[in-house]
Amino acid sequence: MSSFLSCFSPRRRHEQRALKQKEDAARFLDRLPSWNTLDNSLIFQAFEWHVPSDKRHWYRLKCLLPEWQAMGIDHIWIPPGCKGMDPNGNGYDIYDLFDLGEFDQKGAISTKWGGFIELQEMIRDAKSLGVNIIWDAVLNHKAGADYSESFQAIAVDPKERNKDISSPQEIHGWTGFDFSGRGDKYSNMKYHWQHFTGVDWDQKLETNDIYKILGPEKDWASDVSTENGNYDYLMFADLEHSNPEVCADLLHWGSWITNLLSISGMRLDAAKHFSTRFQKKFIQHVRDNSNPKFFVIGEYWAPNVSDIQDYLENLDYQAMAYDVPLLKKFSTISETPYADLRTIFNDTLVQSKPGHAVTFVANHDTQPGQMLETPVASSFKLAAYALILLRKDGFPCIFYGDMYGLNVEGSRAPACDGKLPLLAQARKQYAYGEQENYFDEPNCVGFVRYGNANHSGLACLISNGGRSRKCMFIGRQYTNTQWIDILGYHDKRVVIDKRGYGNFPINASCVGVWVEATAVRRDHLEMNLTSNIYEL
């Protein structure tokens, strides 16, 4: 009875009309498409920047696959597995796309992550568990050339790439790639200066500038980010995707690796730095020749949602993109006392294009010390993950460094007080059906997932202020049922009243995830996550 009084006391009668609208919206849920949706999908980024260079990462992932699958992860984003310039590097210094740890090149056979056989074994086990592979594709540039070549080039202003700051001159750039360790296996393409648009080093004068390579019809790509005037050039030897030989080789690689490894999709690294026309052609080619359901996530790093929307539109929405604006919101709100939580989804991709948004809280580029470092305060990180894992919209991604900690000096413990696996389980078991938002207070927001034919639903509250309560409609079918906070931050049970409402409490600066007590199976929720992953 106390729950009923707290929700419908006279001082709150002015809100009853709004509550009645929420009740009406929850009628006939079984007639909606969400009533029979499939199980939720979840991406796991299976690396962080400082994973040890022990050549055992593919084996490590193979060992961890069962626990990921058990917590509802059905996609893993794996690091670039192609041979890089540095055998201990992470693969973004890409040397040979066709060497997956198979050939003796750049001082090693294996990549940092392991050998070709270990990679195949890991992917085979993933497929047997129903876990899809997202390959991190580095198609913007090449690094670690086998020899330098001489050619005409012109230095440009780093902050305005369309502005020349020198006369045409002969430079010696590292643009010769013969892949002698691999030979012609898989591809007979050899790369020379004609296949690139720019470099950042003149071996002749030993000078470091951004040089645009000159030649007939050569220029920066026009369909790239307009930052710095034109952001085609990023690093190393920048590929010219309009060159027919380059285009053909990359298209061949896309279908080759997709068929060879049975991968389900790719992340396109540095997507704002190379031709969107080529990206569109690449996606269509792989779908036509390898996997009709092949999907792509473009790493188009932009703080303004309009730039990402333009990118997706230029691809005819054939790809998804990371919701960078949402991450920026998480960071700003987490570091601003009593920030208004009601605005957290304003001007984000998940708000404007929910079907094309990959939501995340951290990744290898945003972790401490990296170029795109974007800190989300530890006190808010669980709330941020709840907002991407438990809500209806977006395709969420959990970061390896948050699940297992960062392999840095002094070590960094797992984020969220170790509750990320529990939150992932909540997504797997309860976060289904239609959604009703209660974003009516600046420092306490909530939402309800009503559940569907196979899942009972949940209620979530988030506070970045003091202790509070929120009355939320769960459904008359739950009258007199008891709901518990599976995160364990709130001991008392909430009893749903005769009108289907629960009066849910929330502690200061806290997260609560409430589910019907009879739907909770602790043996399914609580997991013994592998702690010493680098001893595997």
UniProtKB/TrEMBL annotation:
Organism (species): Penicillium cosmopolitanum
Domain Glycosyl hydrolase family 13 catalytic intervals: 41-427
Transmembrane regions: none
One MF annotation (Gene Ontology) recorded for this entry: calcium ion binding
Family affiliation: Belongs to the glycosyl hydrolase 13 family.
Keyword Hydrolase attached: yes
One Pfam family here: Alpha-amylase
UniProt keyword annotation of Mitochondrion present: no
Any GO BP annotation: carbohydrate metabolic process
Listed cofactors: Ca(2+)
The entry's keywords: Carbohydrate metabolism, Glycosidase, Hydrolase, Metal-binding
Protein name: CAZyme family GH13
